[in-house]
Design a protein that fits this description.
The structure is a homodimer of 315-residue chains. Chain A contains 13 helices and 10 strands. By secondary structure, chain A is an alpha/beta fold. In chain A, helix 8 links the parallel strand 7 and strand 8. The mean pLDDT of chain A is 95.
Chain lengths: 315, 315
């Protein structure tokens, strides 16, 4: 399978620059001292729609428009960040968007999709409903992660990390279906062949790790984690190929560790992130990531779609 | 009195660039829609030492070194952000630093000064102790706000706002002793003569507004506010001159309004700020700032030295 290459990432940069936030790479000297690392965070919680998903969704839509012209509309299935990103991308281009969400989706995320002008269909048959919309109305079914254009969009996170300073020696990335780490690895590996790239999943939502160990893409039980953004029930074909080729290790962290790191990140970085974004720090804290003292290290903070009330509940 | 000019700001930029964080100017589309403004925030809570104070302290030290060579050490009086900024500036240059803090200073801020290598003297005679150190040991007493080099350092906030997009039509800035708004106004006014520049103080800590109304620099009673970073007991001579010449209005907000906006900023921007940084949103919310619908508006978020625990207590 062909992996996302430098030209794909450059094309994605050209398409989405100016429409997404050029998120900052921020130094974390105090936290870094405690971990004996030259620690930085890439703040994708400050991205449009509150997560990196805006990059991949917008790039996939714009690449489609270049190839085939605009679709009649957009559709997608997601309980959260991807749903918001697709609704936003549709709004940017004035396309009707129908997002299929499970009946148990969080009300605030349903409201966010509607705020971006998306129509919400609550259904247990997520894929079937989306496929019917695609077949009957010519809507483009925008995939959540397992797509070269989506991966190339997420890869712009890696390009920006490289543009903002010396090449990192260690990059730690949250892993759900694997779209973000596939993109970041494609961008970073090309420029920094010796960089260590490590993915982190919740123990209880480990589709990619499971697939790497067993060869089976689908998890045997439904994943559940406070890091709900990482609860993909399966790993993608494209994303697995990228992880196998470009990523050094994928490790797993406990729910307790995620909660503690979530709180610590807010205190240390002044950034409100969603629990999914805290898995990287949790893995470093737990000693699960092989590190060289003083290494220039980047933690990708994947999103911020949570609320102060959720934090208060934890505190 | 000569105000800080373009050359002073350019010199400050040259001195401190690369040593301070180039903080992001972030769009706030949802909050902006609610206020009918094209709203952006300048995230100085992500600055080194957690506030804009790092800019002014470092510029004042470097300007002194250019003029006279390095001092024997640094000293300053402050209960909070300026104390941390001076200790940090001293650490950057390997200078001994003694910070005088009041006995009631917050333990976490005392600890932060020590983490930056500063020695802390707890005393009620803040100015006298600092002056003795300056006289006896040749330490440089770095002023908290009423100094042209400090103001020029804070002005780099304004320069960065101008560099990151079209000139703002409205800039809203928290006001304590007036250093930040003096600098921001000096930078913004030069490039955007018609921009509206508004300062915001707590009703209960309104040294600048009091001085503008009465001509009396000192407040009659000791200021107290949850926005402790703004509780300056007096306005400066330099800062008052800048505010009189360059600022359109200074308004005052209640403690209740500050608390509500503090919480809302975290929810809407994903940024943990200190209450002082929330006064601008509070003023917009209360209708205290004259606005043109759709105006490109920048809220300066002055700092982030607070804790998730403080937020939890409010929630």
């Amino acid at each position: 399978m062909r992996l996302v290459g430098a030209d794909d990432v450059t094309a994605a940069e050209r398409r989405i620059t100016g429409r997404v936030v050029r998120t900052p790479l921020l130094p974390c000297p105090e936290l870094g001292d405690a971990l004996r690392l030259d620690l930085w965070v890439k703040a994708e919680n400050l991205q449009r729609t509150g997560s990196f998903k805006a990059r991949g969704a917008l790039n996939a839509l714009l690449a489609l428009v270049e190839r085939e012209g605009p679709p009649a509309g957009l559709t997608a299935f997601s309980a959260g960040n991807h749903a918001m990103a697709v609704a936003w991308a549709g709004q940017v281009f004035g396309l009707p968007t129908v997002v299929c969400m499970p009946p148990h989706a969080v009300p605030t995320k349903i409201a966010a999709v509607r705020r971006y002008g998306g129509e919400v269909v609550l259904t247990d048959d997520l894929l079937g409903t989306c496929e019917a919309l695609a077949a009957e109305r010519g809507f483009y079914l925008l995939p959540p992660f397992d797509d070269p254009d989506v991966i190339a969009g997420q890869a712009t996170v890696g390009r920006e990390i490289l543009a903002d300073g010396p090449a990192p020696e260690l990059v730690v990335v949250p892993v759900g279906g694997g779209g973000l780490i596939s993109g970041v690895a494609a961008a970073v590996r090309a420029a920094a062949p010796t960089a260590r790239i490590v993915g982190v999943e919740p123990v209880t939502a480990n589709a990619v790790g499971h697939a790497l160990r067993t060869g089976e893409a689908h998890l045997p039980v439904r994943p559940r984690s406070m890091a709900d953004g990482l609860a993909a029930p399966f790993a993608g074909r494209h994303t697995l190929a990228h992880v196998r080729e470009l990523v050094d290790d994928v490790v797993e962290v406990s729910e307790e560790a995620i909660g503690a790191s979530w709180w610590e990140l807010l205190d240390a970085t002044k950034l409100l992130v969603e629990p999914a974004a805290a898995v990287g720090l949790a893995a470093l804290r737990a000693g699960l990531v092989e590190v060289t003292p003083g290494a220039r290290t980047v933690l990708v903070l994947s999103g911020g779609n949570t609320s102060p009330a959720a934090l208060t509940a934890l505190g």
